[in-house]
Write a structure and sequence with these properties.
about 55 residues
Length: about 55
């Protein structure tokens, strides 16, 4: 069981760090995430470097 305050939890860091943390959640059975980005370049970087790691299509 993971106990985290959703108001305080933040996944941030390099693409590799974000992938590693999301994989930890996946290993616990989490299959859906909600993301919020501070700016468009951050969103574009996430889509280019993190999303392909998890794409199953």
């Amino acid at each position: 069981q993971v106990v985290r305050d959703p108001k305080k939890h933040l996944v941030a860091g390099s693409s590799a760090e974000v992938i590693r943390e999301l994989e930890q959640f996946q290993a616990l059975g989490v299959s859906h995430f909600i993301f919020r980005f501070l700016d468009v370049p951050s969103l574009e970087r996430f889509v280019a470097t993190v999303v392909p790691h998890f794409s199953t299509a």
